[in-house]
Amino acid sequence: MNNSLRKAFETDGYITNKNFLSLQDKRMIANVIYEEFHDEIGIKNKKDFTIEGQEFHDKLITLRKNNPKIFGKIYDRIMLNAKLRSIFYTKKMLKNFSTILNTKVENIYLNGFMCRFDAPNEDRNSLEWHQDAPYYLETYPKMNAGVCWMAVTKNSSKNGTLIYIPRSHHKIIKPNSFKKDKFHSEQKKIVISKNELLNKKNLNVSFGDVSFMHMNLKHRSGENSSKKFRITLGCRFHDMKSSFNTGYEQYVFHDRKILNLF
Hints:
Distance between the termini: 34 Å
Helix content: 25-40%
Shape: globular
Radius of gyration: 18 Å
Number of strands: 10
Order of helices and strands: HEHHHHHEEEEEHEEEEH
């Protein structure tokens, strides 16, 4: 990775590296997902399992519908899986983070790990237009930080891939925060202008592609109208030398503590 990608990140607010993951990396990710789910969905032979296999997705949809508690427990557990998180701590990945943020590898802080399974025709955990910055204010106000978004399935507008607005990352906006109920994700909705909507793009990526987006980039979830889950991995990466507020992560700490920063 070179400084031209740092410049693209600063200018456009995002950059995508095609085929970033090695075959070994992809096999590891697929194996973790298989090991977590195969007993509950009845795929006993690993040879019968592929990430894009319709049988796997059909069984996953059935499990989520008929046994939501079991699906939820597996989902919560896989979010904490050390093997999955290790993909963000490789030498290659840390080097990318440091280059993008123009800092030393020793200054990188990671948090906000995720492994998302977005179900077909379901918007319960879809987020409207927002920035990640209000959720992760560790580097406020300089916000020399980003989001690493890694496709596990082939993601396009069909399965509701991320929609973003290029060059919309130059200012953090105080959001309107609300949560419909305990089953829906918390929303930190922001207003998007008509001109911004005209410039929106879909993040079309495949398993092995990795995208890096500025923490302030305006984006939202798409609508999954396919017959498969959209599966993604991700984390947030920060430059601790630019500015750093220990503990200011919205998902963990109280809202009032966070809002005092604005």
